[in-house]
Amino acid sequence: MAERRVTVASKVGLHARPAALLAKAAAGQPVKVTIRKDDGQPVEAASVLGLMTLGAMHGDEVVLAADGEGADAALEAIAEMIATDLDEG
Fold it and tell me: Which residues of 57-77 are buried (b: 16+ CB within 10 A; e: fewer)?
């Protein structure tokens, strides 16, 4: 299973608009992507509700994981989004 650590850049964390954008991008990946905080249980990155209940705030580090063909590319795409302030625009 491939994993990637990334720091949340959005000033509001993974809530509201950033969660919706991230969930849409994760749902479009060829593999299931999960996200968790270090000490927490993983949730599906394609779930807005799951992302919001994660409680990931600006500056928190999260761990992405995926398995299967295309996992590395999927993790890279999602990690890039998390490392960007998605609340701007």
Answer: eeebebebbbeeeebeebbee
